[in-house]
Write a structure and sequence with these properties.
It holds the Pfam family DDE_Tnp_1_7. With 393 residues, the protein is α+β, with helices and mostly antiparallel strands. The chain is built from eleven helices and eleven strands. It binds 2-acetamido-2-deoxy-beta-D-glucopyranose (8 copies).
Length: 393
């Protein structure tokens, strides 16, 4: 399509029915302008994919500086301002399994047990993999004893770093300068393990796990097994983010639904490549090549359709080139018609005759009358207006 049409479509694209939007926002769907498409997208993401044993919960910040009620500020992310998408990813392949747009506190959310917001968010995200004995990894925004208990009742285990100021961490686990580097202390209850680890002097990290029940420490690195497990699985969402960044399809926009749409395109290229590689593990196709092929595959149908429309021959030849079809120099019935020829004086008749003709010679394009033209026999079925014109019959 032309750039003009592309920009027009970009300007006109909407993702919902604006007439009913206010009602949907009032009933709790703050992101109503895009949420239906977003949910459908997420549903499609999970339809053809089975998660591995390990999944990661995290938040993704889609850079956005325009006006939006639920735009967030996150100091730790490079973009700082943006829309927060809560994600559940496969920790091994970084495939996005479930996600929702974080729109702030939702007073209409059902919360009979008075759980904290991070806990509710995780419970929402893991709903498709409940009771599968999978293990979830999360960072200190999510980790709490409450979450571990709730996940346990849903047949899932959890590993995560913990804020040191949580009330339920006992004093022995509080930072203590006298501890030597690479030492660990463990605490056990019936179903969970807490580990306090000092990777360097003055540094410490506390992790909670309901998947590990031993004080196993790696003999070479002196790191507790829990820490190594956390390290190997925590990057699920961040890696997805990184992969998106290297081939972003994002364009600047002041409309947040459009930004979400670009993020969906972003994620779908990464997810579809994961599916492709799962189906063809021997094909080490680079992301760049994959994205080019994906783009071409997506426009194929549209190009075919345009080829049968009334557009200029040059345009058709460009399309044929992209599709890999041989160029055609013969006009076809659907080619754009030239404007009707002006009647001009035949160059071969004497001037005095002043014989006017609408025809031109197909080679030299000079006006020519019937008498001075070669006649060809063409059956009625084949004679089209365009052929008559260009052959100068
Ligand atoms: C999800 O899949 C269905 C069925 O294939 C399709 O109709 C729908 O457009 C898809 N949704 C999105 C957001 O791609
Ligand atoms: C993906 O899921 C859809 C809907 O369940 C199904 O029709 C389709 O065959 C699946 N595709 C593959 C490759 O499994
Ligand atoms: C810090 O650790 C030392 C040695 O393990 C211990 O004697 C001391 O009581 C600890 N201090 C605190 C505040 O826990
Ligand atoms: C690390 O600990 C030492 C002594 O315990 C202290 O002098 C130093 O300021 C600490 N460094 C930082 C960055 O906290
Ligand atoms: C986590 O893994 C990275 C690389 O995979 C490594 O550089 C880092 O030291 C590890 N950290 C811990 C605490 O194991
Ligand atoms: C696409 O992904 C990258 C990395 O997350 C980001 O820089 C870019 O802004 C994204 N675009 C959108 C609209 O999310
Ligand atoms: C193609 O368009 C031209 C004007 O742009 C028109 O005169 C002609 O009839 C059209 N041809 C077909 C086959 O639609
Ligand atoms: C794949 C895997 O290691 N799953 C483990 C998750 O955690 C539970 C509880 O410890 C184990 O039983 C699973 O084997």
């Amino acid at each position: 399509m032309t750039l003009k049409r592309f920009l027009f479509l970009l300007c006109a694209i909407r993702f919902d029915d604006p007439d009913s939007r206010a009602d949907r926002i009032a009933s709790g769907d703050t992101a109503a302008a895009v949420s239906e498409v977003f949910k459908s997208f997420i549903k499609n993401c999970s339809t053809n994919y089975t998660c591995s044993e390990f999944a990661t919960v995290d938040e993704m910040l889609v850079p956005f500086r325009g006006k939006c009620k639920f735009r967030m500020y996150m100091k730790s992310k490079p973009a700082k301002y943006g829309l927060k998408i809560m994600c559940l990813c496969d920790a091994r392949t970084h495939y996005l399994i479930n996600a929702f747009i974080y729109t702030g506190k939702n007073v209409l959310r059902r919360n009979p047990k008075k759980l904290s917001i991070p806990t509710l968010d995780v419970l929402d995200l893991v709903s498709p993999i409940e009771n599968t004995n999978r293990n979830i990894t999360g960072d200190n925004w999510f980790t709490s004893n409450e979450l571990v208990s709730e996940l346990k009742s849903r047949g899932l285990t959890y590993v995560g770093t913990m804020r040191k100021n949580k009330r339920d961490i006992s004093p022995q686990f509080q930072p203590n300068k006298s501890r030597t580097a690479q030492s660990s202390i463990f605490g056990f209850t019936g179903d969970r393990t807490l580990v306090y680890f000092v990777p360097k002097r003055n540094r410490s990290v506390i992790l909670l796990s309901s998947m590990h029940h031993t004080d196993l420490v790696n003999k070479e690195s002196n790191k507790p097994e829990i820490n190594e497990f956390y390290n190997s699985t925590k990057s699920g969402v961040d890696s997805l983010d990184q992969k998106c960044a290297s081939y972003s399809c994002s364009r600047r926009s002041r409309r947040w639904p459009l930004t979400i749409f670009f993020a969906m395109l972003n994620i779908s290229t990464v997810n579809s490549r994961t599916l492709y590689i799962a189906a063809k593990p021997e094909d080490k196709m680079t992301r760049k090549k994959f994205n080019v092929l994906l783009g071409k595959a997506l426009i194929q149908e549209h190009l075919q359709e345009r080829l049968s429309l009334n557009i200029s021959r040059e345009m058709k030849n460009i399309i044929r080139k992209v599709l890999g079809i041989a160029e055609q120099n013969q006009p076809d019935a659907t080619d754009l018609q030239p404007p009707p020829a002006k009647r001009m004086r035949c160059v071969l008749c004497p001037r005095s005759k002043d014989r006017k003709t609408p025809m031109t010679c197909s080679k030299c394009r000079k006006p020519i009358c019937k008498q001075h033209a070669q006649q060809r026999f063409v059956c009625n079925a084949c004679t089209t207006a365009s052929e008559m014109w260009s052959d100068g019959v």
